[in-house]
Amino acid sequence: MHHFQTRNGEMHCEGVPLRRIARRVGTPVYVYSHATLSHHYKVFDAAFASMPHVICYSMKANSNGSVIRSFTNLGSGVDIVSGGELARALAAGAPPGKIVYSGVGKKVWEIEAALRRGILMFNVESREELEAIDAVAGRMRKRAPISIRVNPDVDPKTHPYISTGLKKNKFGIHIGQAVKDYEWAARRKHIEVVGVDCHIGSQLTDVAPFVDAAERVRSLVDRLLDMGLRIRLVDIGGGLGIRYNDELPPHPKQYADAVVKAFRGLPVTLVLEPGRVLVGNAGVLVTEVLYTKPIPAPDGKGRKYFFIVDAAMNDLARPSLYGSYHAILPVGKAPRGKVTADVVGPICESGDFLARDRAMPPYAAGDLLAVMSAGAYGFSMSSNYNTRPRAAEVMVSGSRFEIVRERETVRDVFRDERTASFLMQGRRRKS
Ligand code: LLP
């Protein structure tokens, strides 16, 4: 469910025509629907009502402060993966006691910052990281709350770049070895074992892998409780998929029921780290067609078109990086007919495309297009490649819209560069 609908031939975000935003703010621009964000959060939260739980929004999906605050205002915590995310989560009102910190490469300053703020727990991914956290906490005279991220060796059947719960992936400690590390951790003075964590991948469209992983985690939790460890948090990560094209992902309720079933009866609070399912369909990327270019179709039959738009792989990397599908819809009335086209950006790579070989109306320069389902891993993965300033971000609520991140300027992009002095000296000597 989302609030991007076409009325009178114009696509709206809630009560605001996207064309009005494009005119005022320019393109490319990310537009988020606040009503959709809230709705998704509430549905997800309600789905887990039968068990104590904390939702820690996985902010890597979309790190805009207003997006994070949309959730923290509803009681959400945040799943972070860096010291940078910690700072942004706190700035957006996240209570430190609802922050979980995952990731395989935490640095000392990041561990210190998280300990100083008193986060809910570190999800620890290796024995060496456990040792590092113990040492830092010791120096700070604190006890670090930890869970071990276990790798349950389950195939999430998603894109290989976003599968994380297989033995061959860099994530977590193999579930078979975890008991040893828990025993070690439990003896450390500056570590407090509080939970078990697992995350198997992203954009999962089937509950079966979640159930498999949950059952394996449940057996481990039973064993750890038997050993006398005080496990009170079970974090099952994120990963629930959304519909981009014709996928049929489970409803949050089906997902929640399956997970809750695995942990029923345990005296634990579930921690959930949803990202994409909360924000994916709450955002679109609006872009303008700059030029169109026909070429003879590669199969020799008729023509194919390039629609060259002002958004590119630096704005939305997913199609180039994973071959992901994003629906592309007209913001205004579409011209009649259908042609085969690639929607491409201005970047100097053939890998720079938003859609390939898609049947779509014969758009013309000046048309506005909405790249759908761009709320997750859109802006947050954007870059300045080709010295392209990053897009503006706008949030809509009802009939209002506000810029929630200004478009970068070209100057912003290279403001922090310094010319090496030895390059300048030569010039000075000459002059
Ligand atoms: N928790 C952990 C430990 C994670 O690594 C992730 C995502 C999440 C939670 C949230 O997963 P979600 O609910 O959003 O599926 N850039 C890729 C997705 C990368 C996911 C990385 N980890 C994409 O655009 O599809």
Overall average pLDDT: 96
Radius of gyration: 24 Å
**Gap between N and C termini:** 66 Å
Q: Assembly state here?
A: single chain
Helix content: 25-40%
CATH class of the domain at 34-277: Alpha Beta
Which topology of the domain at 34-277 does CATH recognise?
Answer: TIM Barrel
Biggest sheet descriptor: 9 strands, mixed
What small molecules accompany the polymer chains? ligand LLP
Helix segment tally: 13
Strand content bin? 25-35%
Kindly name the structural category. Answer: alpha/beta
Number of strands: 21
Query: What is the assigned CATH homologous superfamily of the domain at 34-277?
Result: Alanine racemase
Notes on the protein architecture:
- The protein is of the alpha/beta class.
- The protein has a domain at 34-277: TIM Barrel (Alpha-Beta Barrel), CATH 3.20.20.10.
- It is built from 13 helices and 21 strands.
- The protein has helices at residues 18-25, 34-47, 65-72, 83-91, 108-117, 127-139, 178-186, 208-226, 252-263, 276-279, 318-322, 410-414, 421-430, and strands at 4-7, 10-13, 16-17, 29-33, 53-58, 77-80, 99-101, 121-124, 144-151, 173-174, 191-197, 233-235, 269-272, 283-296, 303-309, 328-330, 339-344, 353-360, 368-371, 392-397, 400-405.
- Strands 4, 14, 15, 16, 17, 18, 19, 20 and 21 form a 9-stranded mixed beta sheet that branches. The protein has an 8-stranded parallel barrel with strand order 5-6-7-8-9-11-12-13, surrounded by 5 helices.
- Strand 14 (283-296) and strand 15 (303-309) form a beta hairpin.
- The model has no long low-confidence stretch (mean pLDDT 96).
- The protein binds ligand LLP.
- Residues 58, 61, 79, 102, 162, 164, 199, 202-203, 237-240, 273-277, 318, 322, 376-377, 381 line the site of ligand LLP.
